[in-house]
Amino acid sequence: MLQFDFMRYAFIAGIFISLICGVMGTFVVARQTSFFTHTLSEIGFSGAAFGIFLGISPLLGMIIFTMASALFIGISGDRLSRRESSISLFSGLFIGLGILFLSLSSKQSSYATNILFGSIVGINIGNLYSLIILSVFILIVITLLFRQLAYNSFDVTGSQYNQHLNLLTSIIFLGLLALTISVTSQIIGSLLIFVLLTIPASSAKYYTPSLWKMIFLSTIFSLGGIWIGLYLSYVTNWPVTFFITMIEALIYCSALIYHQLQISKSLLKN
Amino acid sequence: MNSMIEVKNLDIQVPGKQLFKNLNFTIPSNKLTCMTGENGVGKTTLVKHILQSFKTKDRRININTTRSKTQYVPQLRNIDDEFPLSIHDFVGLGLRQSNLLWHTKSEKKLLQDIIEKTNLATIENHPLGAASGGEKQRAFLAQALCAEPNLLILDESTASLDTSTKNELLVLIRSLLVEQDITVLFITHDPELIEKYADYVLHLSHLQAELIRKERRE
Questions:
Q1: Does residue A133 or residue A119 have the better pLDDT?
Q2: What are the backbone angles phi and psi of residue B14, rounded to the nearest 5°?
Q3: Residues 136-165 of A with CB under 8 A from B
């Protein structure tokens, strides 16, 4: 299987995607903004379609759209991104815009549908390099600002009063999220990035209350899902996205069962 | 008497309402001062004004410490039952002695000392979401202590606690005053706690404030 370039690229891409999703996902789940993350990936789709329409690179279109939205949400406050009605509005609006840009552009639109559903086995060496460079950039920023980001994500109220430059930290976080989504959706699709940014971290938090273990476990859950999914897809010829989503769902179910068992155990003890 | 906060001729308005007019008061340093007043008199607004004065450089408010050595423990915090982080890691979010990815040796020691002092050692690895109301308040206090503050502002920290838990928390706060150079401003409605633990009371009413000295029954 590894004699094929595209499989090797996919396995390597999996490492970097898991690393950024492990950390960013832990923060996303702590902030309880999973649905905003979903909206952001749809905004990304719209941006890619816009990029194709203008004839610039779809990645650039995505970065522009998601960054602009992140900045807008960062400045107007988290509350807007949590409101159900505004989430529905933005999702609908941007998918609609995406469809418009696609139909206006005479060029082939298969790339844009790739962005929605992804094709990790379809990446070339150029995609891989841009993924690695942007992932390393994201990881460096996280390393430098780790304490600020952790405080800002895990204690929204406390950090609001007691952390210097807290609003800027929120905006930087949303910027990183926008970048994560743009970088990864062109490879694995908006659907899958939403899964990888929320499910592994949501599962990890049922296994451990320690911040570092949470990040480690969610990275492992992402990587396991991607690698096993790639293998199964290679063997069966079924879509890899399906396998990864199924594996993550199984991990989440087992985490819930584990959590329930822990609760009943502690109830029995008392 | 040394003062931690001095306020002179301060006016505060919110849309449609004058909260304070020509307000003057001082908060003595290294003492426990309770701030009282009817609901809506503007206690929290006043505190937020004081916190913002670090940034706005408001000359009418003079504080004898820095912003990073001032910690505000808000009344409400969005920590629900599902909150995943352990008490140890939640408290550790307040550490800012360095900016490294990991905690330094001295930070680890400080964190452990604080966790022991706030009686959280036996439950430090439990998720904060599963902790009781009193344990949560102690964890909030512990997180604020990680910044090694000179000024600690507690906003109704005992509001949802039962009598014995309230008293435990206040005994803990009083012990901090003795051991560390710390000034506590405690917003509360609770006459029993004020009677037992306060050095001073800052009573807010009718656009004004009055500082009253208390004789504590030890």
A1: A133
A2: -115, 160
A3: 143-144, 146-147, 150-151, 154-159, 161-162, 164
DSSP label at B96? -
ipTM here: 0.90
Residues in A touching B90 (Cβ below 8 Å) = 154-155
Comparing A19-28, A134-143, B98-107, which segment has the lowest mean pLDDT?
B98-107
Length reported for chain A: 270
Closest CA to B114 of B83, B147, B84, B85: B147
Domain boundary among B148, B172, B187: B148
Which residues of B touch chain A, with CB atoms under 8 Å apart?
51, 67-68, 71-74, 76-78, 84-86, 88-90, 93-96, 99, 101, 125-128, 140, 143-144, 147
pLDDT of residue B187: 93
CA–CA distance, A147 with A145 (Å, rounded to integer): 6
Note whether A168 contacts B: Cβ–Cβ < 8 A.
Answer: no
The C-alpha atoms of residue B176 and residue B72 are separated, in whole angstroms, by 16
Label residue A171 exposed, middle or buried (CB < 10 Å: 0-12, 13-18, 19+): middle
Q: Which of B73, B84, B88 sits opposite A214 (nearest CB)?
A: B84
Which pTM value belongs to this model?
0.89
Kindly state the average pLDDT of the residues B40-62: 88
Instruction: Say which of B93, B140, B144 has its CB closest to residue A151.
Output: B93
Pair B163, B215 in one domain: yes
Indicate if the pLDDT at residue B216 is higher than 70.
no
pLDDT of A107 reads 64
Residues 6+ apart with CB under 8 A from B78: A156, A157
Residue of B nearest to A263 (CA): B130
Tell me the residue range of the domain where B202 lies. Answer: 1-65+150-218
* Overall fold of domain A5-189: ABC transporter involved in vitamin B12 uptake, BtuC (1.10.3470)
